[in-house]
Design brief:
The structure holds two protein chains of two kinds. By secondary structure, chain A is mainly α. Chain A is built from 23 helices and two strands. Chain A is globular. By secondary structure, chain B is mainly alpha-helical. Classes of the chains: A mainly alpha, B mainly alpha. At the A-B interface, helix 1, strand 1, helix 4, helix 6 and helix 7 of A face strand 1, helix 5, helix 6, helix 27 and helix 28 of B.
């Protein structure tokens, strides 16, 4: 393999490592665990040259690999990254490591297969972010679901079949229409490369249909209101690791799709239908936050909170046209796009950490019911401190990564309309309410019952996982400049694409 | 000014907080106390050096960036300091009070298992508060704003096993977040109209923004600046506990007393006052916003004072007093008397921290008894605490020559001189407030320190006066409570101390107006002996004496006759009742309706599960998941695809 094929490495190394882990098998579980851990670490290490070799200040794709794949379909094995996809790839590689460590000896049922599924999924998810060929993208997009079905289906909770089914139904229906749209674009453009699709002139009618087809696929993934109801069920049934990856990475594919496909391929339709996205985003932020408030199941609470936070991603991405019509210029739109991107990365870290925290409690008590807890900090001080930190980060505390995305999107939405900003900023109150009410009921107070009294504080492995995430959340919160610098040129370029009409001049 | 020196001022307490918090066990109790006290003392000394440079050496104010946080779309978000006469004064007040509280804590928290954690928190608070006051931009202001809020949250809930403390800290955080909600919109408005988050740019653009109008509803234009200023002030209402966002402050008394003194009296709650003074170049151009500030402040000043009269918990009386005094400061802001507001903030910081720490000493001596009905006659048992408290109380009610007199009298004069809409109402409120302040303050003093001892058996047996580690801070705070007003009234109010730091338009300059009749601090105090506020205060003390010491039986009589009014006061005007039974219930009800009705019934019930036949069909297929069949199929599919890919790529 050539020295610059780092993207292929980060895609196929975990897949290969996953197959190796599978081959080692459940009987040699310890060896399988180590194989999985080393693979995930090696993949993360392979991201280092991607980051150090990445040139800021240009919107051009980098680390390009391009070879013919299926000649008959003009499909290519075409990879590359820019400032939008690279952060998500690093996030994927980064979040897989804690998942492997967190499952270390907690997963007793078929451990090798469990770790293998996560590694394979890691590679496929990175493939989604790295593909510059739409068919290759679609291949990774669909293939990645399989390990997730498997994870929920085998290691899931009692209602796992229902949850898997619902998840499948939603994503399948969404993706099918996207495939149709991609085929239509292929027939017009002549190949599957994203660049040709983004260049392709399209009438408003065509754009509208394509936009809606894309929207369905991406909205389900984000998930946007009202196609979000699969997420709480999937989270509740998934094992801890599954929830972490679901929240941290899989949801981001929806946001990524909107940025990579919807906005640049159908800019005029995006302009025409931006009110729809903005409305759904604001509904997600306000409506879902209230729903999160009344949840009794910790995982459902965090799942709903994810939907509300992802509302900031979709809101920030589609403010461009409102800002343009309100102020006559696009200044400020990049704040929204930057906010959307940072929110994705930050939410990946924070929601992942929160699910891991819930997993720590679940492993000990075998319940996620909030009312079964109370006064946990008395017996688990280390855990309590970290859980409080993540909950505060989730409510957008400055100094943590959770603040930046929300703050930037609120700043941008004020430029679009005072009312958008007002509704978006309501998360400050309601978000704090559900996060800290959760903390009040679970962490603080006197020890609630004998079971809580017997809880053991974090062991070294758990402390390592949560500690690393805590450091990341704070580090990104106080030093976000590298991330913003990496994105800058690509986001500016995206903005140019979005405000340039693609309707052919007759 | 040396930026490294400035940076050291907030960073030293931060490092100390990290050390005490993360390595508390390793460095031990003495280590944690030494590290944090050393750091805060160093900050205090450096702050004094900075003030000295500004005052004596006439070094120009520092306004510069020290760290670039991020750049997005050309908007620079930075950590930067604006150190001028206003922020330097705040830095000295914050670090000095913080230092006193640190020292006092050694004694107060002596037996507490969370000793190191407590020191870590209060040092972290000092860092956050310094970041807030030293900021030169809105982003950092908001950071400090939220950070002090979080530390306050952690400290109110410091004794986390107490349900009341855990309730109070959640309440405090949420009510503050309501204020922050407005605050963030104000900041977004500033960015919208100026394209920058730096104070400098925002202040320069203020006259332009004032001319702009914003349409919120079809056909109704609002002055953009008024909207921005009111949004920013809503933030101040949360942090500085102005009605109706005041409800969290009395409950915050659940926290240990040292933080009641530091955070909930002297520093954090004054952040809103400081912020408006800092933003004077914006507020000056909006008379409507200032009138809003004035009316809110006046209402808080008087009506929160009433609540102090009916409370028997010594800490809560002081808490209501703090609310009322914050109202006074807000009134001063509302009449463009920013320098008076900051002056009162400073004197109040000293005498209120003193009163709280003294109350804490009483509570410790009484073995955690806070009910004043079970005290009485303590002046013989704890003379130092009594005399320092007396200095604080006399300063609070505005006795001539005490520090509180100078700030409060100037404040009342300023309101009197103002012609702003609402100033008449405010004048009535602040005058009546003087009587009320004296009444509740001396009711507290008489109940606690005078009259017969009413100690119960337990307190009798365990009573022990506090040590000098707790008395020394009382003395250290009593000195400025006594003399700081006399010494500084001339330069701060009438000597142009603030210079460029505070902007007042010529037409609004009420402080300048009273300055024309100012002939030195002694003459000012003697003038205060003439009929006026001081007489009202004396009347208040006399009333308290009548009711508490002379005719204790009168109280019950009045309570019976003014039944409804008494009930209104005891129920704190029903604000808590309304919040808990109406607002919180609506919030939860809305959540349940949206969840059960929207998500479960409508979306899942009607739409998703409505396609039941399809689900049923698919279930037949996917049921095999459990057998592991699909699972192996999945892996083989991926392997196959990978092999295919490899074949295409490299022709293996």
């Amino acid at each position: 393999m050539q020295g610059h094929d780092w993207l292929s490495v980060v895609i196929w190394l975990p897949v290969a490592g996953g197959l190796l882990t599978l081959a080692i098998g459940d009987r040699r579980a310890q060896a399988a665990r180590w194989a999985a851990l080393l693979t995930s670490l090696a993949t993360l290490a392979a991201c280092v040259p991607l980051c150090t070799g990445f040139v800021n200040g240009t919107a051009a794709f980098q680390f390009i690999e391009r070879v013919p794949w299926i000649a008959a379909l003009h499909a290519q094995y075409y990879l590359g990254v820019d400032g939008i996809s690279l952060p998500l790839i690093v996030l994927t590689a980064f979040m897989t490591v804690p998942v492997i460590i967190a499952g270390w000896n907690v997963v007793e049922k078929r451990p090798a297969q469990y770790f293998a599924a996560f590694l394979v999924m890691e590679g496929l998810m990175i493939g989604v972010f790295a593909s510059l060929d739409a068919l290759l993208f679609y291949f990774f997009w669909e293939a990645m679901l399989i390990p997730m079905f498997v994870i929920i289906g085998i290691w899931g909770g009692p209602r796992r079949v229902y949850a898997t089914l619902k998840f499948f139904l939603y994503t399948f229906l969404g993706s099918v229409l996207m495939l149709v749209a991609l085929i239509y674009l292929y027939l017009k453009a002549g190949d599957y490369s994203l660049a040709s699709m983004q260049r392709l002139p399209l009438s408003l009618v065509e754009q509208r249909w394509i936009f809606l087809a894309f929207l369905l696929a991406f909205a389900v993934k984000v998930p946007m209101w009202p196609v979000h109801t699969w997420l709480p069920d999937a989270h509740v049934e998934a094992p801890t690791g599954g929830s972490v990856i679901l929240a941290a990475i899989m949801l981001k594919m929806g946001g990524y799709g909107l940025l990579r496909f919807s906005l640049p391929i159908t800019p005029d339709a995006s302009h025409e239908l931006d009110w729809l996205i903005v409305a759904l985003s604001l509904i997600a932020i306000v409506y879902i936050a209230f729903v999160a408030l009344v949840q009794q199941d910790m995982k459902k609470l965090v799942a709903y909170s994810s939907i509300a936070h992802m509302g900031f991603v979709t809101l920030g991405a589609f403010l461009v046209f409102f800002i343009l019509s309100a102020t006559g210029q696009v200044k400020g739109a990049v704040n929204g796009l930057d906010g959307a991107m940072v929110q994705m990365i930050s939410h990946g870290l924070i929601s992942g950490a929160l699910f891991l925290c819930i997993g720590v409690l679940y492993d000990r008590m075998h319940t996620r019911d909030i009312s079964a807890y109370g006064g946990v900090v008395n017996v688990m001080p280390k855990f309590g401190a970290l859980f409080v930190l993540f909950a505060l980060a989730n409510s957008g505390l400055p100094g943590t990564s959770g603040f930046i995305g929300e703050f930037l999107v609120i700043l941008a939405s004020f430029k679009a309309s005072f009312w958008f900003a007002l509704l978006a900023a309501s998360i400050l109150v309601v978000g704090a309410a559900y996060n800290l009410w959760l903390i009040k009921r679970v962490v603080f107070g006197p020890v609630a019952n004998d079971k809580v009294a017997q809880l053991q504080d974090l062991n070294g492995r758990e402390f390592l996982v949560l500690g690393v995430l805590a450091v990341s959340v704070v580090l990104l919160g106080v030093w976000p400049a590298p991330l913003l610098d990496m994105m800058e040129a690509s986001v500016q370029h995206l903005l140019q694409q979005v405000v340039t009409s693609k309707i052919p001049v007759i | 000014m040396n930026p490294h020196l400035l940076l050291a001022i907030p960073v030293l307490p931060l490092l100390a907080a990290l050390l005490a918090g993360l390595a508390g066990k390793a460095i031990g109790r003495a280590g944690a106390a030494a590290v944090t006290i050393g750091a805060v003392a160093a900050s205090c000394v450096l702050s004094c050096v900075v003030l000295e440079q500004l005052l004596v050496e006439h070094v120009p104010a520092f306004d510069g960036t020290v760290y670039g946080w991020l750049v997005s779309d050309g908007v620079r978000m930075q950590v930067g300091f604006l150190v001028d006469h206003l922020s330097a004064l705040m830095m000295v007040v914050v670090t000095f009070v913080s230092l006193c509280v640190h020292v006092y804590t050694i004694g107060y928290m002596h037996d507490d298992p969370g000793f190191q954690r407590f020191f870590s928190y209060i040092s972290l608070f000092t860092f956050s508060m310094l970041m807030l006051v030293m900021s030169n931009n809105f982003m950092q202001l908001f950071f400090g704003w939220e950070a002090v809020g979080v530390v306050s949250y952690l400290l109110i809930g410091f004794w986390y096993t107490r349900p009341s403390a855990v309730f109070a800290n959640l309440k405090a955080f949420l009510v503050n977040r309501v204020g922050d909600f407005g605050f963030v919109l104000g900041i977004a408005g500033v960015l919208y109209y100026t394209g920058s988050l730096d104070y400098r740019d925002a202040f320069a653009a203020a006259p332009d923004i004032a001319a702009k109008s914003m349409t919120l509803f079809q056909g109704h234009g609002w002055s953009a600046l008024t909207l921005i200023c009111i949004c920013l002030f809503i933030g101040a209402m949360g942090k500085s506990a102005q009605m109706p966002l005041h409800v969290w402050l009395p409950d915050s008394m659940e926290g240990p007393t040292p933080i009641s003194a530091l955070i909930h009296a002297a520093t954090m709650v004054t952040a809103g006052i400081f912020m408006v003074a800092r933003m004077s170049p914006l507020f000056e151009y909006s008379d409507a916003a200032l009138s809003f500030v004035l009316v809110i402040g006046a209402t808080t000043a008087l009506f929160m004072g009433f609540l102090g009269i009916v409370n028997d918990d010594i800490k809560r009386v002081i808490a209501y007093s703090t609310l009322s005094q914050l109202g006074y400061m807000t009134v001063a802001l509302g009449v463009s008397g920013y320098s008076v507001a900051i002056f009162h903030l400073m004197t109040h910081a000293f005498f209120k921290a003193l009163l709280f720490l003294a109350a804490g000493a009483v509570i410790i001596a009484m073995h955690h008894e806070q009910d004043m009905r079970k005290m009485g006659g303590l002046r013989r048992r704890m003379p130092v605490t009594y005399w320092t408290s007396m200095i604080g109380a006399l300063a609070l009610i505005g006795t001539p020559f005490f520090s509180g007199f100078y700030s409060k009298d100037a404040l009342i004069e300023a309101v009197h001189a103002s012609t702003r809409y609402g100033a008449g109402y405010a004048y009535l409120c602040v005058l009546a407030g003087v009587f009320v302040t004296a009444l509740y303050t001396f009711r507290m003093m008489f109940l606690t320190f005078h009259g017969e001892e009413r100690l119960d058996h337990h307190a009798q047996e365990h009573f022990h006066d506090v040590g000098w580690d707790m008395k020394a801070p009382l003395v250290a705070l009593a000195i400025p409570s006594l003399i700081i007003g006399y010494l500084t009234v001339q330069p701060i109010l009438f000597g142009g101390y603030f210079g460029e730091a505070i902007k007042v338009l010529q037409a609004h300059d009420v402080v300048g107006e009273i300055g024309r009749e100012f002939h030195g601090p002694a003459a000012f105090a003697l003038h205060g002996l003439l009929p006026g506020p001081a007489w009202l205060a004396a009347l208040g003390v006399y009333t308290a004496w009548l009711f508490v010491l002379k005719h204790p039986e009168w109280g019950a009589d009045v309570r019976r006759r003014a039944g409804w009014f008494y009930r209104l006061l005891v129920n704190k005007y029903y604000f808590d009742w309304f919040n808990e039974n109406v607002l919180a219930r609506i919030g939860r009800g809305l959540g349940i309706v949206l969840w059960r009705g929207g998500d479960q019934a409508l979306i899942d019930g009607a739409v998703v599960n409505g396609s039941a036949r399809m689900v049923g069909w698919l279930a037949g297929v996917t049921r095999r998941l459990q057998s592991g069949f699909l699972y192996s199929y999945a892996f083989w599919m991926i392997i196959g695809l990978a092999a295919l890919l490899g074949w295409f790529l490299y022709g293996i």
